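Supplementary Methods. Inverse-folding protocol.

Structures were first reduced to a discrete structure-token string of length 172. This string, shown here, constituted the complete conditioning input.
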């Protein structure tokens, strides 16, 4: 009887148009915290230096999330492939969005792993997964994008796997 009443209540809630809150997935990273907050998508270089190209640099610059209390949050990852949140944030350049993700506070740097976005509370959450679609359209399907990416390959060829010329992994 209680189960039937609970199901009826859930159905009524969903039918009313109320949205069930999204909650980011935890990864077990030290100092992580599931968060939802409002922030304006900003071009970080523009915010810090006043050098402000149109459209937040068309995706060629690092974007940030400026909270209403003046904190500049660094989004470092999107949801898909655990890579690059910029393709998801760029359409919101200069706009305020609601962010669902992980805040990872470390003494060296605080970062945000963006998992979902929306402009208003009455909208459904949109998963932050644009990077995969853009990368696949440009380079094709790959089991491990980071090993197939031409830019990554060029950097490794020039600077080695550790980013320091001449430093190589020890052989077993």
């Amino acid at each position: 009887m209680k189960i039937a009443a609970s199901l009826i209540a859930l159905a009524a809630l969903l039918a009313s148009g109320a949205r069930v809150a999204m909650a980011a997935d935890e990864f077990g990273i030290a100092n992580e915290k599931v968060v939802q907050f409002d922030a304006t998508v900003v071009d970080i270089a523009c915010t810090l230096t006043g050098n402000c190209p149109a459209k937040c640099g068309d995706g060629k610059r690092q974007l940030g999330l400026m909270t209403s209390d003046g904190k500049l949050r660094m989004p470092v990852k999107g949801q898909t492939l655990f890579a690059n949140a910029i393709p998801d944030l760029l359409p919101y350049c200069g706009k305020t969005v609601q962010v669902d993700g992980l805040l990872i506070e470390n003494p060296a740097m605080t970062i945000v792993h963006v998992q979902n976005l929306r402009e208003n509370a009455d909208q459904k959450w949109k998963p932050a997964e644009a990077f995969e679609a853009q990368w696949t359209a440009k380079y094709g399907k790959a089991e491990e994008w980071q090993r197939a990416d031409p830019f990554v390959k060029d950097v490794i060829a020039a600077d080695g796997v550790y980013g320091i010329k001449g430093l190589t992994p020890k052989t077993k």
